[in-house]
Amino acid sequence: MDDETRAKGPWKKNLYILWVCTFVAGLAFSEIMPFMSLYVASMGHYTKSQVTFYSGLVYAITFLITAIASPIWGALADRKGRKVMIIRAGLGTALSMLLMGLTTSVWQLFACRALQGIFAGFISNSQALVASQTPRNQSGRALGTLVTGSTSGMLLGPIVGGILADVFSIRSTFFITAALLLVTTLIAGFFVKEFFVPVERPKRAKGEKRSFLAGFPNPKLTIVLLCSTMIVQLGNASISPILSLYVRELMHYRGPITIVAGIIAALPGLSNIIAAPRLGRYGDHHGTGKVLTAGYLFAVIMYFPQGFVSSIVILGVLRLMIGVSDAALFPSIQTLLTKSSPITATSAIFSWNQSFQALGNMFGAFLGGALAGLFDYNAVFICTACMLLFNFVLLWFTEPSLRRGQVG
């Protein structure tokens, strides 16, 4: 499908509908996280260390299975269509949420979380559908806008989940979440239009081996961008386990610690919502590579001082700025992946991107806890800044087109 055909298609309508759908999906995915460890603790007479261990397993298994399953679903999406994969992911995740509300043991919960990982892909397939239907010169703005849907949903999710669990119960929250996902899937199924034409892949000669990246114009750039997704997400995820503890320390163990920690955690999402569409639009006109470069440098500058602050207000300002760097990095990486991928591999590359993001989530949570335990909270922020600096240097020196401003 060329840009002229895409421009005449319903890409704007799809974008608005999928924004709503990814908002609800982000809300559903994140609203159960604040009380997951409490749910684990309610399933047996466990010690504190056992609850921590089992909670870590239950949390990590979804991301591990997602990392393995996503490329398989992505390859299928490029043959069968992205819309059917959105429906598959929505219905499967709704089923896993329903089963989580029925579990009575931690191992049943573990199995249901693994099932959720198998069916993951609602947001990544939504991004792939928008990317495949949108004119390439509008893809930065479109993907930047779409990212704000899932981001704002994930931002509000813990608050909504906490209220639902308090008003009803933890188990009831899983059932409500399943219903939300079902409704969202039906909206996508009935209102999203996809003009999908499966592309015949070239037949291989007998005995010929052809790698997935063989059809990509710049395989090295693709690999580096996927690794960049993992490193950026690893940095974000490494902060999550220690942020509330760091806030408590800065507040000297006095005052409304949980409320302040919630506000601090929400600030990056708030600035991300505001900045992502604007940075995406700027990248469409001036080059996505420029936005990516600026995003890395800005993130490094904002992460380093977070490990040395003594004021909760300064920490809040710096965390607010992290949302701006995320708004530059994630959509820019996705846009560059879209522009540097053949149209026949759009869903596959977004699924691989989801796999690397899932690995970043999994390793980041472990890294943050380990660094804080071995050293102190500030070590987590310093390490994150160093990883992002390394990632930037890797991109800069392995991809000459980025230095010359020819990327994006």
UniProtKB/TrEMBL annotation:
Residues 14-403 form the Major facilitator superfamily (MFS) profile domain. PROSITE patterns: MFS. Keywords: Cell membrane, Membrane, Transmembrane, Transmembrane helix, Transport. It is found in: Cell membrane. The chain crosses the membrane at residues 16-41, 53-73, 85-107, 143-164, 170-192, 212-235, 255-275, 296-322, 377-397. It is a multi-pass membrane protein. Its main location: membrane. One of its GO terms (cellular component) is plasma membrane. One of its GO terms (molecular function) is transmembrane transporter activity. PANTHER family: MULTIDRUG RESISTANCE PROTEIN MDTG. This is Multidrug resistance efflux pump. It comes from Lacticaseibacillus pantheris DSM 15945 = JCM 12539 = NBRC 106106.
